[in-house]
């Protein structure tokens, strides 16, 4: 039996000729096989793909369908369920029945068999089409100008908005939502004039009243429309963007129809499916499991809204134009904690020395872990403090403000194996574990991961080598690099300058390794460039309770204390800093790790970094098609 079915399947008379599609495939496979022999790029992958058993099976199915389509077999009977019921009754009425009859009885009673027979009958009787109401008998003389559109209502909204011409009182379709019921019907278009809904004339009605009439209808809804004479031709190009702002249609009094609106959050990737209207675009949020798009403000409209909002806010000097802190201000920040030993300059230096010795012990297989020195980290941390803006990032890119484009065009991109790796940049509130995770990642495989060696103007110590712990440079060279925007970020600590240069990062990437650095949030824009293509991982603190539990045996290094146990204030500060960071920078995070259990976080980081390098990602379009400014 099985053999017979197979034989039947193997010799279909499909439309593609006697030999069928599979014959074509066999010929193609042969040709590709020869290309494999000639070592042509990609031929091997194509060959294995064409040879895949699932493809062969799919073609068999396709050929069978083609055959049935051509033969269009008529059903032997269109009441299989009824026949099955009759059989059940007959078998039950038998006084003594055979084992075969009993088995047939059991089979026919199976719910899935009954469902199958019922589906068969529906198809055989062709009763799957909706029953439409009869056409109106008396059609007016200008009949040819009108169209009757009958839609079957389901749980979905109609997917069209209406507007009223205030002078004539006529009701028009304002827009048809992409993928909605009206759009899929292909029968209603923006600009069509609605004359009747379910037989009610709508001229002169308020749009809300029209909606009520429409909402009252059950099952089907009938529109009588005068179609727009010249439908505009739209050449829609596919556009994907990352939202740089939050939007909620429910809180936007200007939206033409809040129910048709789509909310989004910073960082969401949106597929813009319709830009016909200069003010209101139609979009879907990705990944999307709905066919229907929603209304969102266009770039220009959202920019205008942001500008209005920005001007309505009280004046706040931009971080980039804040004055540098004075010595007195620094002293004000000194707090004496009774329970901890305050680290004065000298004590601090000796701690720093110890750390440097520790750093040497982190020398794995001759690879030195650069970029973990305490001075560098403290300098960076101070840069983030709002009261002490002593560290800087490249302006103007760091001056990202609400007035920049609210949508960033993105494309789905897969790094070519021969391209340099993407830079991995970690950030998070101070003490959350950014450096711990970074160090563990590099230690896991120093042949793959490496930090960038920072620059400093401080004098080298006896054991230090330029290019290993730091690149030791003169202030003049450092200033020149700053002037030429060659730093991802830089700052001052104890009178010396420290910074991570783009060249240091590039050196690691050019060596074929994955460069892993940690940055302060205001350096985000400096690493999101065509050159570095940073993959930004945000390390988020877990809930307060979990912080207390997991950090019981951990130590924090603050500006004034070296390795003291965490206190509740540290956790609260961490949470507060995290909230601020998320509210300003969430849209730039490619991946978020909640650093709860350290081991889990390490695994998550490793997985994310692998995906960033080897799987398709949404990246700014300017990285792939560089513009003059990028
Ligand atoms: N998941 C965790 N569980 C327990 N302890 C952790 C965890 N993550 C980090 N730690 C510990 O917390 C302390 C602070 O971590 P780390 O030095 O990495 O902070 P950081 O985010 O780099 O902060 P900073 O930028 O201020 O140096 C370290 O002692 C580290 O071992």
Automatic annotation (TrEMBL):
Name this protein carries in UniProt: MAGUK p55 subfamily member 4
Coiled coil: none
Family statement drawn from the similarity comment of this UniProt entry: Belongs to the MAGUK family.
Gene that produces this protein: mpp4b
Pfam family, one: Guanylate_kin
Biological source species: Stegastes partitus
Matching CDD domains: GMPK, PDZ_MPP3-MPP4-MPP7-like
Keyword match Cytoplasm: no
Record's keyword terms, sorted: SH3 domain
